Amino acid sequence: MRHQPAEQLGPPGPAFFVLVFGLSAQVTGLHDGVRTVDPWVYLAVVAGSSLFACLLVAGPLLVPRYRREPVRRLRDLFPRRWGAVARTLTVRAAIVAVVGVAAAAVVDPHRSYWIVCAGIAVVGMPVGRRGAATRGIHRTVGTVVGAAVYLALAFLPLPVWALGLVLGALQFAIEMVVVRHYALALVFITPLVLLLIGAATGDAASVPLAFERVVDTLVGAAIGTVAALVVRLRAD
User: Fold this and answer.
1) For residues 147 and 159, what is the distance between their CA atoms, to the nearest angstrom?
2) Closest of 147, 143, 146 to residue 221, by C-alpha
3) Pick from 73, 135, 183, 195: most CB atoms within 10 A?
4) pTM
5) β-pair type (30-31, 34-35)
6) Which residues pair with 34 in a beta bridge?
7) In 3-state terms, what secondary structure has residue 128?
8) Can you tell me the distance from the alpha carbon of 212 to that of 143, in angstroms, rounded to the nearest whole number?
9) pLDDT confidence bin for 83, thresholds 50/70/90
10) Has residue 48 got a pLDDT over 90?
11) Where are the alpha helices (DSSP H) in the chain?
12) Are 97 and 17 a contacting pair, CB within 8 Å?
């Protein structure tokens, strides 16, 4: 099994770091002068969920055969020198961040994180120009279909406990398909994120919200594709 260095992330790359940052600001921000979620409560929930995820991932270490596997050295996980691939990904991400924020000032200044996230999702993996273009198409098509799924779910009169089950089912589906098929994963990622925003802001069913996400994704995916075309991927 081939291991990745620390600066290279598996699918979907660093997209979730951008997404979590943007969603955190959106959920804990002021809406019509009222803060719906206390930032400290939100931080505690995120921290507790992260801790639970770490414990869950470390669970297999309770099985003796996993503990017998060789331990990798820190210098292998955190090399002192970045290779050409890592440098390429960094330059591409920087382009997406700068151009994406500038484009958001015109397209959607209140949710620039979504445009940047869509672009990062395209260039956050070590793929060539054709691969980046394919990911851009997947990002767009998956988001459009996912927005339709969101609208179908958002208008259902779901109680709180049922909404929790739906979110859990969507997250499970994402984990099952995100490595194999990016567009299909976005069919589940998009409604998951939009339902979370709707539940946090009190606007569970919003056609304008779904439309904004589609437009933001189109802009972000285009920026990410152009960045990948401009900055050629070089092998280490």
Assistant:
1) 21
2) 143
3) 135
4) 0.71
5) antiparallel
6) 31
7) coil
8) 11
9) confident
10) yes
11) 15-28, 39-58, 64-67, 74-77, 84-107, 112-123, 129-154, 160-177, 182-201, 207-230
12) no
Q: Which of 141, 103, 120 is nearest to 219 (CA)?
A: 103
Question: What count of other Cβ atoms lies within 10 Å of the Cβ of residue 28?
Answer: 17
Return the percentage of the chain with pLDDT > 70, whole number. Answer: 87
pLDDT 10s digits, 169-209: 998 988 888 777 777 888 888 888 888 777 766 665 667 77
User: Tens digit of pLDDT for each residue in 122-133?
Assistant: 887 777 778 878
CA dihedral sign of residues 31, 19, 116, 163: negative
The rounded distance, in Å, linking the Cα atoms of 165 and 109 is 32
For the chain, the residue count is 236
Amino acid type, 22: G
User: What angle in degrees, to the nearest 10, is found between the helix axes of 112-123 and 84-107?
Assistant: 150
